[in-house]
Structures are given as structure tokens and as C-alpha cells.
Amino acid sequence: MSRIVSVGISEFKIASAPTILMTYGLGSCVGIALHDPVALTGGLAHTLLPAPVRGMDSMVKSAKFTCWAVDLMVEELIKCGCVAERLVAKLAGGATMFEPQHRTTHSGIGERNVTAAKEALERRGIPLVASDTGDDYGRSLEFNTVTGVITVRALQRPIKRM
Amino acid sequence: MKFDALTEEHLDALKEVSNIGVAHAATALSQLIGKGITLQVPKVHLMKITEVPEAFGGAERIVVGIYLQMLGDARGNILIVLPRESALKLLSRLLPREKSEGSLLTELEISALKEVGNILASAYLNALGALMRKTLIPSVPVLSFDMAGAVIDYVLIELGEVGDLALMVETEFFGEEEKIGGQFFLLPDPESLRIILDAIGVKL
Fold this sequence. Notes:
The complex is a heterodimer. Chain A is an alpha+beta fold. Chain A has a single domain (4-161), classed as CATH 3.30.1330.200. In chain A, 19% of the residues lie in helices and 33% in strands. In chain A, helix 1 runs parallel beside helix 2 (109-124). Chain B has helices at 8-33, 52-55, 84-94, 107-132, 148-162, 190-199; strands spanning 37-39, 43-48, 62-72, 76-83, 136-138, 142-147, 165-175, 181-188. Chain A: Keywords: Chemotaxis, Hydrolase.
């Protein structure tokens, strides 16, 4: 039996094979998975916002912000014996849950979360090997740290593996 | 005003004003469906953003979320959460024809549920506004039918920008005969919290 570890909003968790990392109900939030296929270790983050607003950037660094989540996970993964050059990334989430006419202050937050995640990965030189982002529905993720495969479940939609 | 600076007295006051607001909303709903609606005593949740999906009954619960912004003299978010079964039951009372097969909502059903949200939120904010002697108005409602976690992360965006805590005033309501029920959540902005408490005469 593999152990299951659940990741909440604005959290990230690191785990090694055969643990399964899960996160539930990603809407505009984005799920970022990093995997080292040799060390069979991975990290999964569930981020809420792309980056802190001005004046708030003195906050304690957490995976609440997409721009920090990748850095925090990489540091932790290296401590756990992973090699930065071997890491690969997968992204899911970043949906638009409510109709666009309503989006005023947080317009396009899902999309901005995805962009922030891609930028953070690029800064670290981590290749993005698969993604399932955007659209207008919520997703739950199951990340297998043995295979690196992510299973994406959504309401009324076929299960996706990537 | 920082959420963690709130005292028991503040929280009780919030429960009380919310109770009055939801009572008006329940009357409106009861008139709409022609059945009595009962309310539970409001609960105030002050919790980490990470814990919010649990308070909504679990991130994967399938719900209809109707979201409105509170605008005017105080700002915040209103979220009305109807479990799937409850939303369908409500629709069967509001719309004449039988529910079509499949569990996606039609345009007409979405529109009807948004209108319910609008009526509930307007009644709630009218009562709250009268109590505060302030003007509070709801924005145009939007709706999402999905996993609770995916529906609510949108509501947490503004709160997440300024802190890690969410303050939610929750009132559950039930139909007396029909299996209609749901949760009414008010999530005031930290700044507006001061305005609300001040307006109802609670010492800060």
C-alpha cells in the first residue's frame, strides 16, 4: 500500500516513492509538480496567487504565491537527495471558475497563476514536460512519486493521465 | 483591522448581525418556494486559508456556488453554497418542467439559481445595511457548479493577498419539508470589518 499525502491550498509537500501526493479541487489555483525520476522523489504545490502585491512582499515565503512555490520545493527536494538538473515539472489548474464579466480586481487569476509558474520554472531551468491548465472546471490531482505520472480528475470529464 | 485582533465580543456581534441578515434572506427564499425555511445559529470561522475547503464540507464535494461581491460602504464577498441535490430540488420548485437527464445545468437553470442568489444576497445586505445605517449592495451574481475547493479558491484570492487568515460568518438554512438546504457565507474584507463593527456600535 502506498501512503497518501494531501496538499492543501497554499501548501507544498515533498515525498518519496511509493507515496502518492494528492491535492483536491484546484480552481484558479495551480498545482505544480516537480519530479526527480532517479531519486523517485517529488514535490507538489497548490498555489493561490501569482505573486505578492506591492508592500506585501515582506511576507514569510510560502507556497501561497506561485512565484515562490517552485524555489521552495527545489530547495527542499535538493535537501532530500534530488539533483536540480534531473527535475522535470508538470502543471495543472489555473481555470476560470466564474464568467469573465465578473472578473474585476482578480481578472484572469488562473491564467496569471499559470504564467507565474512557467516563469518560475524557467528561472530554475526546469523543463515543463506536461500540463493541463485553463478552461472553466476544477481539478483534483494524484501525483505518483514512483512514475511521475499525474492523474487529473474533474467533474463530468474523463480521467486524464499525464 | 487584523482578523486575529478580534475578541469574542466582536465575533458575537458579527453572528448577531449576520443572523438578522440571513433571517431576511430566508424569508425571501421561503416566499419564493412557498415553503418554510429554518436557520441554524450562525457560526463564525476564523481560520487559516488552507483549512477553508474543509469548512465548506471538503474540497471535492460537488456544489453550486453562487458568488457575489458586497459593494457600497463596506466590501466583502458573499458565497452561497448549495449541495448538488439541494440545488436540483430548488430548481424543481422554481422551474415548471422536469429536470433534464445528465447533471450539467442548463442556461435556464443557471439563470434561475443566480436569481435566487441575487434575492438572498439583496435581502441579506438590505437588512445588514439598515442595521448599520449604511448602503450595501450586491454585485451581479456569478455561478459555478463544481468541486467546492475549486469554487472557493476564487473567494480566497483577495484575502490571500493581505494575509493567511479567512473570517467567515456561516449560516446554514434548511427547507422545512423539502430537502433544500445550503450555507450562506459572508467574508468581509479586513478593512470593512472595522466599518461593520463600528456601525453597529461595538467597541473596537
